[in-house]
Structure prediction request, 200 residues.
Amino acid sequence: MAIELPDLPYARNALAPHISEETLNFHYGKHHQAYVDNLNKMIADTPHASASLEELIHASAGDSSKAGIFNNAAQVWNHTFYWHSMSPNGGGAPTGAIAKAIDDSFGGYDAFKEQFATAGATQFGSGWAWLVAKGGKLEIRKTANAETPLTDKSCTPLITMDVWEHAYYLDFQNKRPAYMNAFLEGLINWGFANANLAKA
Prediction:
């Protein structure tokens, strides 16, 4: 069972003007596709060939001999989660259960926004900023490269922001803070976060 590139939940031009169709053509059409292709080559004709993406991630996490499988599988999963973390009509303050959880955990949306942006800004090099649920509270985390909170079975990922340069360089050049502001103000998908929180 080959791993497939999942469809985007919107058209490639739907996130403009925050993220351009050109960026989606490269980020989704080239980078995400390459992770899928590389992973399928690595698992072909192996005992992993019929495993799900999540099974591949858990089976290879922390095993240096399977670093290639982990990196590509986790990047396929992380990117799919990232596309759903954005919406053409997203951004701004949260609503629903996630709004109360953010108030309870961070003291309000402004404090969350500051801490989330700081996580993204201080991730040296490539990586991700995450909002996760753990033990009835919310936490902000950052991970390097392909690392993912999916490997921590005690938490549930709610939202992620990609801070690899290929996520924003065509639109924002080296201005990562401007990209993060666009993500928070114009793209973040609180409906997706609420759906994930309901499963936590």
Observations:
- Strands lie at 127-134, 137-144, 156-162.
- The longest helix spans residues 21-43.
- The chain is about 50% helix and 10% strand.
- The chain has two domains: 21-84, 97-199.
